[in-house]
């Protein structure tokens, strides 16, 4: 009995009913171990969807998604219109006619009042939790609205101005997207503008596909980044093995040969330097210059010997003077004083002789 129930459950899974079951991971072994589980799950499919929600809750969720989509689309439409009008106000330049200037003033005033009303309706004061800003109520903003006549004129003039502004934006977008269309005429540009939405949608689709491809390539790049270090580590281990097994065995012989080669090269370099030194000396000191240098050396040695002899004589005289004692110093001082007096009187006699 259990085997027949398991076979029926496996048949249900093979027929494609597994996608209709609540979220669970079932195997044929599970169905064979628990008889009747497949029938229970198939009975639950009448009350649950594939995500595990009840049918009523799933229906309510689907209706809420549709309502949210409609509200988002509605909000996006009015938000786009509001931003386009604000942009039109920013782009309005100087030198406008009085009628256009009045239209822009009424439009700006209407937009400001609408923004203030939205702030008051969507803030905490709308729920009664906090007092409104400056004690204002939405009804207080009615005084800031333009007159009905001005609003009526603005509404009549608004579609034309909005169409002009949107046309300028479409032309600017067309010039950016297709720069070659600037030299075309008005009719070809209008034809291009009709296909601009399709071209932009195709370009958006292309960019999305390119972005998805880029994400895929980024994923592959990350995988390669994770794989490359492992490969490099294996290569490094292989190189270490080769160096340890094959390189180090002959390293000592190679080092000996390199040392011998460097020694011979160094000896050759020293011999070459000595040869260059001898060549320079041979070219610098010719026999005539050697004879002159020899004569100069003999003269200098003779001068040195004479100076040493004079120095020895002076030292001998000085030592003899030092042996005479303090009386000799007094005599020297007296001699110096008398010599100064004699010199002074000689100078006076010389001056008298001049006169």
UniProtKB/TrEMBL annotation:
Originating gene: HAUS4
GO cellular component annotations of the record: HAUS complex
Keywords attached to this entry: Coiled coil
Protein name: HAUS augmin-like complex subunit 4
GO molecular function terms attached to this record: microtubule minus-end binding
UniProt feature coiled coil, ranges: 200-227
Gene Ontology BP terms: centrosome cycle; spindle assembly
InterPro entries: HAUS4 (IPR029327), HAUS4_met (IPR026214)
